[in-house]
Specification:
Blueprint (H helix, E strand, L loop, with lengths): L4 E4 L21 H16 L2 E5 L6 H12 L4 E6 L5 H11 L10 H14 L2 E6 L6 H12 L5 E7 L1 H9 L1 H4 L2 E6 L5 H11 L8 H12 L3 H18 L6 H11 L3
Parallel strand pairs: 2-5, 2-6, 3-4, 4-5
Antiparallel strand pairs: 1-3
Helix pairs in contact: 1-2, 3-4, 8-9, 10-11
Protein name: ORC1/DEAH AAA+ ATPase domain-containing protein
Pfam families: AAA_22
InterPro entries: AAA_22, ExeA_AAA_ATPase_DNA-bind, P-loop_NTPase
Amino acid sequence: MIADLDYGLLPDESEDHFLGLDQAQLVGTDTLLTTRDNIEAVIEAKAMMCVYGPAGSGKTMSVNSALRHLAPDITHRLELRAGPTPRDIRHGLFQALGLPGEPPARPIEFDTLLKEALAEEFRVLVCDEAQWMKKTGFEFWRHLWDDKRTNIAVIFAGGDGCYKVLRREPMLASRIFIWQEFTRMSKDEVRATIPAFHPVWADVDTALIDAIDKQAAHGSFRNWANITTHILAGMKKLNLAQVDEDLVRWVYSKIGGM
């Protein structure tokens, strides 16, 4: 059975933030700017890159943002789930590239078709949630990239699992042009970023932002988006004009431990 995958071009910018948080802003952090510089270098070199780090640290958001700026019309994105096999990846690429007809039944014929398509023009292929892949999946991508006919750059984005698999295999690791590790925001980064992330935090006391991050958000963009969504709902429900400690405690009652 083919694993569950998402296919296609870059999602709309409104989908970048967790829960589709309205009015959330993409903040030009050092990490975001570094990602853009790294992807620009990978595209220029037609190379492969590995972006890795904990869930909720902004990997997908940063990669998508950079590619919207650098290569919006030539990027094709796959999001992998449930331990994809090379067969799954073949079918994912077939759909992501919009190839006509029915997928070939035999792997050799399928690979030939994909290589011919990937030789027609330069493309950027993004493999998101790459931590689900095993060695055979990464080897398939290497097989495509190594072929002298193909004209591609490949970006792997995922958790520490993809980093560990790639680093264990010298033939794979040696082909990665850039490794970029994402980490959770530091206290100073939270202070600088969150007031710009959403208008609701713009005038909130720094001490309260520090407390929320320490107790619940833990430097995670995704956690902050979740908390912000609850904050907005609470303000509407309780008819509040600003964030205070009572509202924050109300939010904690909704989210439990994070």
